Amino acid sequence: MRAKFYPGLSKDFSQLLEDADDYNVTIKVGENQNTQEFHAHSIILRARSPYFKSALSNQWANNKKDGMILFTKPNVSPPVFTLIIKYIYTGILDLTNVSGFDILELLVASDELILEKLFEYVQNYLIEEETAWLNQNLVKVLLIVSKLASCQQLQDYCFKSICADPDPFFTSEEFLILDKEIFLELIKRDDLGIEEIDLWDHLIKWGISQTLSILQKDVNKFTDANFGNLKKTINPFISHIRFHEISSRDFFYKVRPYRKIFPLALFEDLMSFLMAEAEPQHKRLPARFSPYLYINLPESKIIRRKHAAILSDRIHYKNASSKTSKGYKYKFRLLYRGSRDGYDINTFYSKVNGKGQAIAVIKIQNSEKIIGGFNASGWNYSYDDDYDDDVCYNDRNKKHFIFSFGENYEIKIGKFVSGTGLLYGQNCMLAFGDGDLTFNGRKGSCNQRSYDQPILDVNRFVAEEMEIFSIRKL
Q: Thinking of the domain 6-92, which architecture would CATH place it in?
């Protein structure tokens, strides 16, 4: 029988790191005023890291002072190296309360130091546990990880996230400084979920920002030199734009003004196709396909197109995991927003009443959680004398459902089973079920009774924002 005593071994090595007086390596990390020295043992560094094994060879380790081996790592910050040296000695890594930027730096440093197990763990951790941070910093992350050949998994995650929900990426301030190779890789993708004319607009804005000789944005004021320089910047991208998917009107007003940056034969070919429906002579790329292209969602403070696509699937296919059909397009129209319209119940009904099927979405305060419900009948509250102001009326449409979104668009659906489906009336603002999802202003509750499962793990919540959208299939 074999016994293992790893916890004790880890503890002893931790003590060796903290209290050793026989170290023979000093490692200085950081730069400027943010530096720190760490003491270590060459035999442990060599055993744990191929990088240090090479660095501590006779050829590398000749920078000594009084028999002490000296290292400098200015590209690694003290907080990050603290995590690394503890991992090397103890095999322990605690990322609790570590910022996303420090975790990303840890990923880069573990790659450089050839700490393969650490690198693999940190890459998976970023994807699985730091989703929200990644989605907020996609440009910065891509600028770094695109230089790491071993970081393909995180690169793929970033590209897929952009393709699924490109609007925040293309409208971010960092987009204009995006590396050319990264943008080119993105623009080649067939699953990029953006209208082609919008992609062209973003390409032009990026190209102008990258062409330092262009000092004005008005294309009508461009000189021949401006067009020539812009052509050099944009040329690698031209062959990857699906111009045949752009309407003739958009082409005339948005593409044609930049005709001087096109190869003449290609521009004439596109004009013949769009204006005379002539058969293209140049290679015609297939239309991009992403389910999110077929969702028309106005500006929302709560949901993105991917949320809207998932909800559309649930409404029309009764299966949240199914794919949105390319043959359909869905239009979401903003009817009501709490921060804009207030939470007065009369104002609420004046905005949503009689507008058909609708989706309510609520952003929970101090949380990434989004909850809401689908009103399959629409609000149809009548103000005539037949309605009692003190009574809420019960709509039992079996297609009602409530939902919650967690991180990474994970959805939980509560299906209406029996009893109270949806209440409406002078005293009922948002009321799904017999308390399954109620909201009358800033506060609400979720107590599962009429729907088949709860959508929150807590009974009460405070809302940051609420929006109501009508939804219809075009």
A: 2-Layer Sandwich (3.30)
